[in-house]
Structures are given as structure tokens and as C-alpha cells.
Description:
The protein is built from eight helices and two strands. The protein has helices at 23-26, 30-42, 47-54, 61-72, 75-104, 112-122, 145-154, 158-168; strands at residues 129-133, 138-142. It has a two-stranded antiparallel ribbon with strand order 1-2. Strand 1 (129-133) and strand 2 (138-142) form a beta hairpin. Helix 5 packs across helix 6 (112-122). The longest helix has 30 residues, at 75-104.
Amino acid sequence: xxxxxxxxxxxxxxxxxxxxxxxxxxxxxxxxxxxxxxxxxxxxxxxxxxxxxxxxxxxxxxxxxxxxxxxxxxxxxxxxxxxxxxxxxxxxxxxxxxxxxxxxxxxxxxxxxxxxxxxxxxxxxxxxxxxxxxxxxxxxxxxxxxxxxxxxxxxxxxxxxxxxxxxxxxxxxxxxxxxxxxxxx
Length: 185
């Protein structure tokens, strides 16, 4: 016998609408969806609080704990959390990139070098090694940290490289050529 869920969900996320739901969320009843949304919105690991806020019966604390245990161990709820969590970074990405850029371009900020290196890394240029590929061989050239930074900066647009160079390298640093020698067979 299929039990109908007559109790509506109490928690409504300000961040989602049912139009945003994928197949895993759509497979849940309204209270289960509310549990998923509450956990993702608040970041809580208190499942008893989550089921209470979602609208499960709070006749007794013990019954809430049982419902919380069931929700926490439900593969359907786990799949819905995974589905919803995967979509979140994309909606937060513009703000995160702006913040990272603001920190990287503020030389007085204590984390400006870390932010600049993060941006360089996101551009696909790690700070330690440079990979060169010819048609027959692949080589990794280990560079000292300053040369490594200079190699990465050389791959950026000139304006960006100049801005980051001021933050990342000592003022008396001379620009060096870090292009590896061609490999001969």
C-alpha cells in the first residue's frame, strides 16, 4: 500500500523553485524536498532539526530522531542532495570570481598573492611546473618559484601579467626568459 503524505512541508527555500528540480528532487515528497533544501540552505548537520523544520510531526523528540535517522540514511534523499549541491556552485560562481578578483587586485590585502595564484591556477597554469609537448615527447620542467611565476605570467594577457607581476614578484626582480630549450632526439 502506498502511503499518501498529507502533511505539507513547512520549510520553503528562498533559493529554489520547483522548476529548478531535477529528477532526484522530483522523486521526493514535499517534506523530503524540504529536508534537502533546509540542509543545503543552512549547512546544518543536525538532521533532527532539519526534519522538524521540514514539517515532520514533532509529537515527540524520539519520533523526530527516528525520522531524522531515516532521512539521513535514505538513498533517495542522498541523491537529491547530490543533485541540488552540484547546481549550487554555478549560481555562486560570478560572485566568488568577483571577490577573488577584488582580493587579487588589492596589493594591500593580506591574501592578494594567494588570490592571484588561485586565478593563475584556474587559468590552467600551475605555479610549480610547466609542461611542454612536442610531437614525440612530453617533458616537465621544474622551475624555481620565481621562474615558475614568471612562466605563468608570460602566458597571460600583458595587462593582467603586469598587474600580477607587481603583486607576486619582488620590486627589484628582472624579467627572465623561462622558455625551455627545445628537445632534440
